[in-house]
């Protein structure tokens, strides 16, 4: 990812973590903010002008890029997560490095249009159909890294261990089914050997993921935790998304999935549990007490009828919250932030569980931190120059006072109100148009059509 040398941006209104500040000038050099000047009522000569409310770039902490192809298709008929999963497998079966690159490039461009500057790609489709490795065993992961570069955003490739089809008392768990063969490396050691070859780049970092306790036998968990610890890399895991997973874990191991992860050294400050939906009080204490993060994906959790996780209790116990669009039923981090609060209102019948500022931090700084981009998510000297500008004059956002910009962004705006997205000091989206994939809608339609065959 190349950076212009030096430039100045003038922000009509800027969100500076605690308040909206009018008239802010940012000096940017080599992709980072070198100075933040407040009380600048008019644009300096030569400055690029960002009208509206500028936020730190948004972080989409949990993505399965190929799930974007399922949009609308899975809204026909009824069912559960498990029936949805069968449709998902049918699309996974058709992926190749070429089709995945084309689809992910368009999906990441859609994210950029929604103000996302970093994505955490929870990547488990590693091999060819049937489980045969490609000539380059990381061809699929490399396709995703290249797609993010093409779309102009940062990526943390969360290379995922997936070995079994379910929990059981047999050694190694239940073997993978026909669809899952291409997800599996055969063992945690083989997984570690393969993903150790992946190289970080300016725009890409490499992390690890445990798909779930149902897909990774207990005796393989510590290998992944150790790999991440040695590299000080992010480690993510789907956790207690389904009650069936909890019940099977109790039957096989006599404990909950959270307790199993704790026993094998998986929990900790660099770990993020995704969903964390069906937890006991002890689970919540283990997660919070260990500093393990929580990634809530409200639009997917409601789309799949998964339930509403105990986000307030988790945060109160010490678990940092971030947000993801997961299956991409929609790609809108503002909607994810809004939905986390509104879901809690429905569950408790009371309002105001998080301030707009706290929700914006979950969608930006805390999400970037969960992906290993600690230097992003803030508008301050030394931070990465990753910015998202929200229109304050659209039909959704016009009216409120600019000092209520955070509340307007979270509770009124949508991805359609993103006017500019800047990554490393470079415009990726300008005036609502993507710089690298001008017709993102066409690119998405063509990629999905190709994948359908």
Count up the domains: 2
For this entry, what is the oligomeric state of its chains?
single chain
Q: At the first level of CATH, what is the class of the largest domain?
A: Alpha Beta
Q: What's the total helix number? A: 15
DSSP strand count:
16
Report how far apart the termini are. Answer: 33 Å
CATH architecture of the largest domain: Alpha-Beta Barrel
In CATH, the topology of the largest domain is named TIM Barrel
Uncertain spans? none
The global form is globular
Helix content: 25-40%
**Cα-atom Rg, whole angstroms?**
21 Å
CATH superfamily of the largest domain: Metal-dependent hydrolases
Largest β-sheet summary: 8 strands, mixed
Mean pLDDT across residues: 95
Helix/strand-derived category reads alpha/beta
Strand residues, percent: 15-25%
Q: Which sequence of strands runs across the widest sheet?
A: 3-2-1-4-13-14-15-16
Can you offer a commentary on this structure?
This protein has 453 residues and is α/β, with parallel strands linked by helices. Helices cover 34% and strands 22% of the residues. Strands 3-2-1-4-13-14-15-16 form an eight-stranded mixed beta sheet. Helix 2 runs antiparallel to helix 15 and helix 11 packs across helix 12. The radius of gyration is 21 Å and the shape is globular.
Task: State the gist of this model.
The chain has helices at residues 81-92, 97-113, 139-151, 188-195, 218-231, 243-253, 257-263, 281-289, 298-303, 311-316, 333-348, 356-363, 365-370, 405-411, 440-452; strands at residues 6-15, 20-29, 32-37, 48-56, 58-63, 116-123, 154-161, 204-210, 235-239, 271-275, 293-296, 321-323, 387-390, 418-423, 426-430, 433-434. It is an alpha/beta fold.
